[in-house]
Amino acid sequence: MSLAGHTSDSAPLFSSDSEADGLEEHSRPTNEQEAPASGVSALRALLTVLVLCYINLLNYMDRFTVAGVLPEIENFFGIDDGKSGLLQTVFICSYMFLAPCFGYLGDRYNRKYIMSVGILFWALVTLASSFTPKEHFWVLLLTRGLVGVGEASYSTIAPTIIADLYVKDRRTNMLSCFYFAIPVGSGLGYIVGSQVSSAVKNWHWALRVTPGLGLVAVLLLLFVVQEPKRGAVEARAEEQLHRTSWLTDMRALSRNLSFVLSTFGFTAVAFVTGSLALWAPTFLFRAAVFTGEKAPCSETHCSSSDSLNFGIITCVSGVLGVASGVAVSRRLRTKTARADPLVCAAGLLLSAPFLYLAIVFAESSTIATYVFIFLGETFLSMNWAIVADILLYVVVPTRRATAEAVQIVLSHLLGDAGSPYLIGVVSDYMRKTDSFLWQFRSLQLSLLLCSFVAVVGGAFFLATALFIEKDRNRAENYAPTEDEPIVVPKSGRSTRVPVSSVLI
Question: Where is the composition biased (Polar residues) (predicted)?
Answer without folding.
Answer: 1-17
